[in-house]
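step 4 of 6: structure.
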Amino acid sequence: MPISIQSRFAFTLDVPTDVLLQFEAAPIPEQNILRSNTDVSRSEHFARVAAQDDIGERIWIRAVGDFEVEYSATVEIERQLADISRLEGLSPHDMPGEAVQYLFDSRYCPADRFQPFVEAEFEGTSGGARVTAIREWVASHFEYVPGSSGPETGAADTFISRQGICRDFAHVVVSLARASTIPARYVACYSPGVTPQDFHAVAEVFLNDPETPGGGTWQLVDATGMAEPCDTVKIGVGRDAADVSFLTSFGPSNFRSSSVQVTKE
Amino acid sequence: MPISIQSRFAFTLDVPTDVLLQFEAAPIPEQNILRSNTDVSRSEHFARVAAQDDIGERIWIRAVGDFEVEYSATVEIERQLADISRLEGLSPHDMPGEAVQYLFDSRYCPADRFQPFVEAEFEGTSGGARVTAIREWVASHFEYVPGSSGPETGAADTFISRQGICRDFAHVVVSLARASTIPARYVACYSPGVTPQDFHAVAEVFLNDPETPGGGTWQLVDATGMAEPCDTVKIGVGRDAADVSFLTSFGPSNFRSSSVQVTKE
Amino acid sequence: MPISIQSRFAFTLDVPTDVLLQFEAAPIPEQNILRSNTDVSRSEHFARVAAQDDIGERIWIRAVGDFEVEYSATVEIERQLADISRLEGLSPHDMPGEAVQYLFDSRYCPADRFQPFVEAEFEGTSGGARVTAIREWVASHFEYVPGSSGPETGAADTFISRQGICRDFAHVVVSLARASTIPARYVACYSPGVTPQDFHAVAEVFLNDPETPGGGTWQLVDATGMAEPCDTVKIGVGRDAADVSFLTSFGPSNFRSSSVQVTKE
Amino acid sequence: MPISIQSRFAFTLDVPTDVLLQFEAAPIPEQNILRSNTDVSRSEHFARVAAQDDIGERIWIRAVGDFEVEYSATVEIERQLADISRLEGLSPHDMPGEAVQYLFDSRYCPADRFQPFVEAEFEGTSGGARVTAIREWVASHFEYVPGSSGPETGAADTFISRQGICRDFAHVVVSLARASTIPARYVACYSPGVTPQDFHAVAEVFLNDPETPGGGTWQLVDATGMAEPCDTVKIGVGRDAADVSFLTSFGPSNFRSSSVQVTKE
């Protein structure tokens, strides 16, 4: 069942300004892009560069005045879905190079500080069972409160305040997973279950499927409960929200509006 | 003039434990490894994985008991040296994908917070001149004080306390460069000028050499003044110290000793 | 030349809520309250309690619905004015008990962290000369930017971002003074020079006037340059902004409006 | 049953230095000081000043060289003991001026940040029942780990790491109480149950005893479980550990040793 995406956003640049955009479904094996159309305002400069881990692309523009982005796509999800609670953790020494970086602390995910907590709170669990326990603990102890966090809010703040938005839920899950020595990254995505409809973010963890020889597999985890792995369309990944944003302006910009519509066809 | 390196360190693991090591000169074009020898204690498991940006390798071991690492190498530096103050900054929209990630905030480098500071303090400079101004400002305003910082210390703390070690100097330079929209990363290295001799860390910035068509070039910057680009041997790179450590233990470990000797032959 | 004050503010409480108010000129020896009138909406409960250091009063109300406060006063300033740069610092062991608490770190003023900075930046100065140097350094290195800070912003954040409002300037001065072993507190006040007119905050330091036997004297310091000690009307004092607020609501409240007019008669 | 206290500590000052000491049982109504002896090394200057809230005294010394403090006392506790779980909270508007300051955030107790947490975790409780729930939650979720915290550690750090020493346990209790609109302060004390014997710190909350007309009463709360209110001897109080320390040196000092012995006679 393909997923249909329509997103648009608009901003104004008073002077010629460089802007980094990342809003398109990533053309990766697990996502079959059946159709896609990107329509942006005229700009002085337009260039595509590979995004983190070669998952998706970032777009550099340099423009001035009113700028609009309109994107539509139809995507078929073909990822391997797994019952996360049955997956195993990899021993650190079995982790491939590309997963190692996702064990480390990042801007919004000071994972080391959570080690005593995860050892006490989730004692006796490991691997996928640990991840499931983390997701359930976050889901039941944190409240989704739009406006309760800002661009400086990290997982430590959210852990204390017990409230946030999708970005904050993802940061806490990522931090608690890394504190459990499970590689975890941040995924910007589209998903039809997000209410109200908007750009979304979830966590992704690296676990071992004992039935699939050769190791690790990335699995989506959404503690907000809104995005199902079977209908989540990945835009890009990163250590945390510092790495993946649909709009990063290298100079003053006025954000005017955005709308997102994601449906199952 | 080749650089000769001898380093050794020893630690004890009370139970079988996974440990990540990164201590060898990276075999990259700018470093000609004339000779190298790595000698480690017997371990249950030993594997090499690619390190960040494919610069050097990390070694996974799983071992128990006393563990020793002994490394020696002779390296010829062949990097393009440049007078940094003459290099230009790239416009963001000209930055390649692999440099973009080094514009963002990381665990110990909350660069965004320094934007008003760099704009005021280094007003009128850009590109290499900005980097030179940053290096000189850090060199003259910060004191090198062993023991004044710890594993949680980040660039914001160091900016306040005005003291730290090589790691802290590098974090401040990286943060102020990124706040100036100059990609900057953290480099673990060996260098003969480090006093007392030890593992070292410096910053590296991405600038444009107008005489070299095709763009950007990474340039080493050491605000401690101890490591010259012409005799610095890179081990690995990362966003900041969270990414590059000569020893990361995934369980309790007792560090026993280390010694480093780097000389010009 | 008396100072004339008119201030009003209004807020709405959806359910019966306790609110703490502090907005009146403090009746202390250095301020002769020639005339004053406080007019507040009807409330279920109204009580006055002494404020910090017995300087001024706080008002407890319990009310529901629209609530308005209207205050007017005429105050003659009779404080001892001094050329701060000529005052001396007290040795810690000569400080009276009531000044000692203002040497310590507080919520928004982590003074200890600034010790290496003040020793390096203001080397060779002490006492009033140190305070003058601090005020001038803050005045010339920080920008007054409404909206650049929030309720969580402390002196460490402001020291990094180099911008803020009166509250932030006061926090930095207080922190740098305490780091210099000079007792310093936070003063909520009215002053005619504040532009645009609003509730204001400044720092106050405890120094020794060699011509006045018996010691210490509190002296106002405003690094924003808007409030002169000769025409500043104190409302209350505290360790920092955590202690002194014109409105603290113990439950949800909607702030509707405020206006302040302070003039020299 | 009187409590017998013997404490001593020693430090060295290389140059003449001001030091603030606070180590004696406070002579307050609830503590009958049957006998006390303070013996300190010769000093250039020795002065007593009132400590916070006029509870106990601080001693200023100025000295150089080896300095020793020897203190012994016998104290009879005569405080009103209460079953905290039966006490009521005061409405904010009924709180006296001297309790109001203990509702606010302080250096190590950023209480505001914990409001959503206490509302969710301790829902349905208030007053003494809330305090009992907080004490039990901290006692069962935090581990007493000497060496796990340092002078910069605050309640937010401890809430994340779930481990600390008496000071950290007290900071968390104080923060969660204030977040519940219950005035709470930090108490430095001696108590025979502290293992190993040492200077100790606990929290104290302000509640209403419905059987005692006229209001509020301060009640000791120790989430480490080591100090019973019936045998705890108060030294001094403050907002948090920033205010109460047995030794604060205004210059370099080398701490040599300390010993504490507290017994029930």
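step 5 of 6: annotate
 - Residues 127-141 of chain B form the longest helix (15 residues).
 - Residues 3-77+244-264 of chain B form a domain with the Immunoglobulin-like fold (CATH 2.60.40.2250).
step 6 of 6: archive
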